[in-house]
Amino acid sequence: MRVLGIDCGTERTGFGVIESDGVHHRMLAAGEFKTNVKDSLGNRVLQIARGLRSVIEQHQPDSAAVEGIFHAVNTQSALKLAQVRGAALLVIAEAALPLGEYSPLEVKTSVVGYGRAEKYQVQLMVQSLLGLDSALESEDAADAIAVAICHATHLSFAKRVDAAAV
Predict the structure, then answer these.
(1) Which of 41, 78, 116, 145 could serve as 72's disulfide partner, Cβ 3.0–4.6 Å?
(2) What CATH number corresponds to the domain at position 128?
(3) Which domain covers residue 104, as residue numbers?
C-alpha cells in the first residue's frame, strides 16, 4: 500500500509518502512546504494545499494520514494550525483518499515505542525503520513519515484481525 503522511504546520508542513506492507516500509518521497510568515494566512494555506495536491498527483497514494491537533498553550497558534489541517483534509477528501487521523501520542508510540519521544528520537527511528544512511534533515518530513508508518501499521493490523475473525 502507498500512504501519504502529513504533519501540519503554518510555517512548515511536512509530507512523506511510503510504500508499505505494514511491517516493511520504503520511502518514496519526503519534504516540507515552507511558507513565508509575512504572507497572509490564506495565501499560506493555499500554497500548502497546492503542494499537497501536487504530491498526491505525482505519487498516487492509496490512503492518507494526518496528525491530530494537540492541546496548545497559544490559542492563536492552535486556530491557525487547525486551518492548515482543514486544508489538508479538504485536499485528501478531493482526492477521495481514505483518511487516518492519529494523535501525536499514537504516532510516537507506534514508531518509537514511547509516546513522549522527542523529535530527534522520531527522526532516528524513522531512519532505522526505512534503512536510511542518515536521518531526514527536516523534522517535519520525518514526523510526516512517522504518521504514514503509523497508519500503514494500523491498517495492516486491522487486516490481520479481520482475517483472523473469518
Answers:
(1) 78
(2) 3.30.420.10
(3) 2-165
**Per-residue cell: 48:** 500548502
CA 17 – CA 2 distance, rounded (Å)? 7
DSSP string, 10-53: SSEEEEEEEEESSSSEEEEEEEEEE--TTS-HHHHHHHHHHHHH
Cell of 155: 491498517
The rounded distance, in Å, linking the Cα atoms of 9 and 156 is: 28
Query: For the chain, what percent of residues have pLDDT higher than 90?
Result: 86
What are the C-alpha distances in Å from 118 to residues 20, 62, 87? Answer: 24, 29, 27
**Residue in this structure with the C-alpha cell 505494514, named with its chain if needed:** 22
Active site (catalytic) residues: 7, 67, 140
Residue 144 has pLDDT above 90, yes or no: yes
- The pair phi, psi for residue 78, each rounded to 5°, is -65, -40
Specify the number of domains making up the chain: 1
The pLDDT tens digits of the residues spanning 24-46 come to 999 999 999 999 999 999 999 99
* pTM of the entire predicted model: 0.94
